[in-house]
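Exercise 7.
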Amino acid sequence: MSVEANKALIERYVAVLNQHDLTTLDEFYHSDYVQDEPPEGMGSGLDGLRQWLATWIEAFPDMRWTVEDQIGEEDQVWSRSTWQGTHQGPYLGLPATGHKVTAAVWTINRFVGGKIAQARWMRDRLGMLRQLGAIP
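Solution. The predicted structure, written as tokens, is:
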């Protein structure tokens, strides 16, 4: 697949995720998907991702993911994104606060056969915890 096709796949995935549809993850992720340095509470593989996303959507039911920039080369696409949502369910042991949060996220996705096979997410977790009032 071309770099442009890989970028387009990410854009389609973000649109589906913003509708909170986790039933179609197989269309976007390779069966041997690996998450490098997974976020807290995330199990392995595609099932782990699906469960983690369900928990995330429960905590932030109005969550929106916006891709700001993308750079691609060979089998990788790097994205700079923003995640926004209102904390309405438990997250990292914190009860719902009702606070709106915005977090910067950077992702590196490697593709195999037109699907995401490996990913690394870097999120501004400290900024999120501050916005939630969990730390000063």
